[in-house]
């Protein structure tokens, strides 16, 4: 059976299963060996080589979901992204990177790159021209994130891939917010895709993991650095991730459907000033999102009216938790100005459009009517 022809939920359920030849169990056995036979074997296996049975097989599921030849699984999203960067950037090279980016990635670039003598430029915006003007003769990689955190800006993936090819520069994307269910950047020409698997791939707020997917050639290069840095995921957690991913398609589609409904409802809500969601016609890049995403995702942000205290609002919520992470089956909210963007000055936050009234909403699988009711009761409690 050709993997390409399998549908989303079949890939989620079956691709990359480790067959239990011994006892014929229904699910993959967990192989916890850190020591494998080396005489007369095809593969010399060792967990840090990313090639234990559970790691090697789950990587097939990830590659199938991102329409790539190969993939690697890491101990965290940051292990995935740092290994990918260090595989393609050496002393004297230059990275062009989107200005709105996950905070951990920004810290990695700013704090670690100078130690390695790697140069970088954060773009002035997220339009293709902003990336074009940041490219230098020594640029080796362009890295983007779309939809971006927390204002859900949309970067033109096809245009960035085209720019990279025209200028002889590789391109990579952080596809965490969309998940492979809603966006497949390799089909649009991007060279490498990474995820924090802590988010949608894990989906139950109980796993820290990361993945990179790409061609065999690029993955081989990342593997060579990865085995030296030692950022593989332990096989017990790999097994948990496999179990979680069986429901990835079901979960993310349910979450996305909920997000569409809630975004439309919030946009009409008398106590909400603004909603940021690529699925809304009012979103400035709605058409672009439609052209490159198969669904608009389950992340959205909204601003409460000035007279409502966003901090108190979150304390009043009963069902929806305030939480630092995102993408679990449970709905969560966060104040970017108190968390991810707390280190910026008020002026810097104003410049990027992150107000004190802004709330980022990771929409879960609960019933929409219950989520609406929770938001309404929290607003009522403020008055
Ligand atoms: C969480 C996150 C990361 C980092 O992943 P960890 O698993 O926490 O290391 C990277 N990018 C995005 C968009 C994220 O949300």
Tags for this model:
single chain; 383 residues; alpha/beta; Aspartate Aminotransferase, domain 2; Aspartate Aminotransferase, domain 1; 2 domains; 39% helix; binds pyridoxal-5'-phosphate
Folded structure, characterized:
- By secondary structure, the chain is an alpha/beta fold.
- The protein has 2 domains: 3-245, 3-Layer(aba) Sandwich (Aspartate Aminotransferase, domain 2), CATH 3.40.640.10; 249-382, Aspartate Aminotransferase, domain 1 (Alpha-Beta Complex).
- Helix content is 39%, strand content 15%.
- The strands form 2 sheets. A 7-stranded mixed β-sheet has the order 1-7-6-5-4-2-3, sandwiched between helices.
- Helix 3 (77-88) packs across helix 8.
- The longest helix is centred in the last third of the chain and has 21 residues, at 248-268.
- It starts with 7 loop residues before the first helix and ends with a helix.
- The model has no long low-confidence stretch (mean pLDDT 96).
- The chain binds pyridoxal-5'-phosphate (PLP).
- The site of pyridoxal-5'-phosphate has 15 residues, from helix 3 and helix 4.
């Amino acid at each position: 059976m050709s993997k390409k022809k399998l549908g989303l939920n079949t890939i989620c359920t079956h691709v990359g299963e480790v067959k239990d030849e011994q006892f014929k169990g229904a699910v993959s056995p967990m192989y916890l060996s850190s020591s494998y036979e080396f005489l007369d074997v095809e593969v010399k296996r060792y967990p840090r080589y990313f090639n234990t049975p559970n790691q090697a097989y789950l990587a097939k599921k990830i590659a199938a979901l991102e329409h790539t030849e190969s993939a690697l699984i890491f101990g965290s999203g940051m292990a995935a992204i740092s290994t990918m960067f260090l595989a393609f950037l050496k002393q004297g090279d230059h990275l062009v990177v989107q200005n709105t980016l996950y905070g951990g990635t920004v810290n990695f670039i700013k704090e670690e790159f100078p130690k390695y003598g790697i140069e970088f430029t954060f773009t002035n915006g997220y339009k293709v021209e902003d990336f074009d003007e940041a490219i230098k003769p020594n640029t080796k990689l362009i890295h983007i994130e779309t939809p971006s955190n927390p204002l859900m800006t949309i970067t033109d993936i096809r245009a960035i891939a085209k720019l990279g090819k025209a200028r002889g520069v590789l391109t990579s994307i952080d596809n965490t917010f969309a998940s492979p269910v809603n966006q497949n950047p390799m089909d649009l020409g991007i060279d490498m895709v990474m995820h924090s698997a802590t988010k949608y791939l894990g989906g139950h707020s109980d796993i820290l993991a990361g993945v990179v997917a790409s061609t065999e050639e690029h993955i081989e290069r990342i593997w060579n650095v990865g085995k030296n840095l030692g950022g593989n995921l332990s096989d017990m957690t790999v097994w948990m991730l496999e179990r979680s991913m069986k429901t990835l398609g079901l979960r993310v589609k349910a979450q996305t459907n909920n997000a569409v409904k809630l975004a439309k409802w919030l946009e009409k809500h008398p106590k909400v000033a603004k909603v940021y969601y690529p699925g809304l016609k009012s979103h400035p890049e709605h058409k672009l999102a439609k052209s490159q995403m198969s669904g608009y995702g389950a992340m959205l942000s909204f601003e409460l009216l000035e007279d409502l205290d966003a901090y108190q609002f979150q304390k009043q919520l009963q069902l929806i938790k305030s939480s630092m992470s995102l993408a679990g089956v449970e709905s969560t909210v966060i104040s970017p100005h108190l968390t991810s963007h707390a280190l910026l000055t008020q002026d810097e936050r104003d410049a990027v459009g992150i107000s004190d009234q802004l709330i980022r909403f990771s929409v879960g699988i609960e019933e929409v009517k219950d989520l609406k009711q929770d938001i309404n009761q929290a607003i009522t409690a403020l008055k």
